[in-house]
Design a protein that fits this description.
This protein is of the alpha+beta class. The chain has one domain: Gcn5-related N-acetyltransferase (GNAT) (Aminopeptidase, 3-Layer(aba) Sandwich), CATH 3.40.630. It has four helices and seven strands, in the order βααβββαβαββ. The protein has helices at about 10-30, 35, 85-100, 115-125, and strands at about 1-5, 45-55, 55-65, 70-80, 105-110, 130, 140-149. It has a seven-stranded mixed sheet, sandwiched between helices. A hairpin with a 4-residue loop joins β3 (about 55-65) and β4. It is globular and about 40 Å long. The protein starts with a strand and ends with a strand.
């Protein structure tokens, strides 16, 4: 049975999944990993979603305040053995619902150009490419997206 749980960044299953995500990103990002890692700390994340297959945590995602109308999607990950089953889409959908419940009107996010699965997911879910924002401005290794909810 597949379930989704809302929690926060202190949840041990989320921390374990983020550890796997960071291992994957270290390989994909190579020398750029340390730069990106500084923007992915958990201390500012208050809204987390964890996906479970039965009792096994298989994916996660989070949203964090960006401005008065925008939440930023962070820490999206699905464990390798569970990819291709629509889990990331369900996580993203839950994050979007939560964003609306919190009275925000859109989501933005950044992903790396070396993450084609993520890029395909965001495009499939209606996210549009936008100019790189904030710390990602001018980086040719990043691609940023936005979706109005």
């Amino acid at each position: 049975m597949f379930t989704i749980k809302r929690t926060d960044a202190t949840h041990q299953d989320f921390i374990a999944l983020v550890h796997l995500l960071d291992q994957d990103l270290a390989i994909r990002d190579g020398d750029d990993h340390a730069f990106y890692a500084q923007y992915n700390t958990l201390d500012t994340i208050k809204h987390v979603v964890i996906a479970y297959q039965d009792t096994i945590p298989v994916g996660c995602g989070a949203i964090k305040h960006y401005d008065n109308t925008i939440m930023e999607v962070k820490r999206m990950f699905t464990a390798t053995a569970y990819r291709g089953k629509g889990i990331a889409s369900k996580i993203l959908n839950e994050l979007e619902i939560w964003t609306k419940e919190l009275s925000y009107t859109s989501c933005i996010l950044e992903t790396g150009i070396k993450q084609p699965e993520a890029i395909a997911l965001y495009k499939k879910q209606g996210y549009e490419v936008i100019p790189n924002y904030g710390q990602y401005t001018g980086l040719d290794t990043s691609i940023c997206f936005k979706k109005t909810l």
